[in-house]
Amino acid sequence: MSEPILSVSDLAVEFDTYGGTVQAVRGVSFDVAPGKTLAIVGESGCGKSVTVQSIMGLIPIPPGRITAGTAMMNGVDIIGRKTINGEDIRGGQIGMIFQDPMTSLNPTMNIGNQIAETLIVHRGYSKRQAFNRAIELLALTKIPEPEKRAKQYPFEFSGGMLQRAMIAMAIACEPQILIADEPTTALDVTIQAQILDLLADLQRETNMAIILITHDLGVVARMADEVLVMYAGQMVEHGYVDDIFYRSSHPYTMGLRAAMPTNKPGVDARLTPIDGSPPDLFHPPAGCGYCARCPHAMQICVDNPPETYILGERHETRCWLHHPDNTTQIDGINKAVRSGA
Amino acid sequence: MSNLVSIKNLVKYFDIGPNQRVHAVDDISLDIGEREIVGLVGESGSGKSTLGKAVVGLHDKTSGSVSFKGELLPQKYGPQDFQRHATHMQMIFQDPYSSLNPRMTVGEIIGEGLRLHRQLPSATVRDTVAEWLERVGLEADHMSRYPHEFSGGQRQRIGIARALILEPEFVVCDEPISALDVSVQAQVVNLLDELKKSMGLTLLFIAHDLSMVRYVSDRMAVMYLGSLVEVGTANELFFNPKHPYTQILIGSNPEPDPQLERQRPSTAIEGEIPSPVNVPAGCRFANRCPKVMDICHHTTPNLISLVEVDNADAAPRDVACHLYT
Questions:
Q1: What is d(CA B178, CA A15) in angstroms, rounded to the nearest whole number?
Q2: Which residue is closest to B212 within chain A, CA to CA?
Q3: Which structural domains are found in chain B, ordered by start?
Q4: Stated pTM of the model
Q5: Which CATH number is associated with domain A6-224?
Q6: Predicted ipTM?
Q7: Which of B181, B185, B255 sits opposite A263 (nearest CB)?
Q8: Which residues in chain A (214-233) have CB-CB distances under 8 A to chain B?
Q9: Dist CA A120 CA A115 (whole Å)
Q10: Contacts of B272 in chain A (CB under 8 A)
Q11: B208, A43: Cβ pair inside 8 Å?
Q12: What span, in angstroms and rounded, lies between the C-alpha atoms of B316 and B30?
């Protein structure tokens, strides 16, 4: 593993609302290296988007509040900062693409100028230079007839084309990190395959790190080098993609996998849903966030938050089942790594 | 298996201006057997939802027919037609946020069908609603709450209870799970499966999540730009697709298995689904098809059943492609 380009540690974010304080992110740590893809997985409300938005400085403060944690990029903590060595972080060193390209772009501005704006603001290009570069970027993201397309408005683009335009905008300043927040959730599978291929090609060419937020384990399997599984604002499991899929160690990760159909000819296992719903983050549970839905919950899970156990190289889990004194054998829970570690 | 629903040459066009006509559903024939689940897949804009709505009468038919248990359904539904058919044909909608009236309590929403169609005393309606709330995994005292108090998965269950309380025989499910999280999708799918077994439901299950559709359905039908390109049993069609479009669609579906994904070549195709306003002559998939031939550009292929020479026991399969004619 090469030096990480970004290391986040113990990030905690709260929001004040009329109903009280929501503890949206409760101590999340991860890092990502150049040329690698980290996937952040979890269900709605688990804090995946808030995590990356806090790093980008995109959460409104107030009502939001980053109560703890650091995000080190090139030796500087970027939480609360706008620039590193005079260069803009947001849009410059870190690019971001969003789930819904239809609502993330300005409907009153043509696509070329929207991309050019990034270059004018962050790189000091002239208007003409920036527009010409925008056309090149549209060509790079494989939009046909880029000269003509640059002069068109978002409503003239299809969803897939808009997502390409948004990628062009995000990579305009050659960022070291690209954050993609559910980039293909709104797209059809055929278009999703095109966009995922495009992201992988761009990553190979520019060696940028990608943080991919998704809830689709198929997309994770296709794209990720490492996976961070989040639940109720915390990391529950982290590891290389193969560790997460073939040596899952947390009941939530296993639950997610059992809830999805696998397409193996002749195998028709009944889907196992995860019963119940995530905990209320106004009053997060004292113990493990997942214990109310966990089929293997023990008394300790209710009372005490689990520690993080290291299972192997870069594979860690936050579950009491992996405590060295626990002797319960549970089917499918990866014990071999633990005894070997 | 006898056919419960029989769709014959169904056409639905929308006129959107002078000489402009959206060919949303163009000459589709499909039979749905009793207690069968037919999964309908295709990209957005392929006409899946329009077909589903035309079948239950929410859209008028431009031409063609739909029959239910051999009885021809009206071309255009009037209030009496809805009154008569709503008790045996229902629909579950895609968006659990916009398909529930925010000003009605959950009890009113679910019980409305009973009040309109069964003339039951209100105490009986209340008891039946309570029973259905429990049947779909909610609680009886949720009846007095409003939709905004529920999560997406819970609302989808309310939509299911509303559709099923009249104990219909046939239900069109329009993307019932795509707005839900993975863990909740499985809950809803299993619930539909249980209800299918206990009530003998027949479903037209519209979705774009191919793995889920294969899992749920007995048969699968693939739509492209208003027409059917392939119909077959779910497993056969998924694991051995014949039509080039089905092959690409299934090849684009990412599997939750990293080793498999690393070995799999990219099957992404260029281009996007063309506009249904001016449909190309010939095969509608011709301009994106990797196996396109001359004939594809000028002759429209018909949906024909495929006869496998070497395998007489093969499950029936219909394909609309010149490769197989």
A1: 28
A2: A261
A3: 3-88+166-277 (3.40.50.300)
A4: 0.84
A5: 3.40.50.300
A6: 0.79
A7: B255
A8: 215-222, 224
A9: 9
A10: 158, 160-161, 191
A11: no
A12: 13
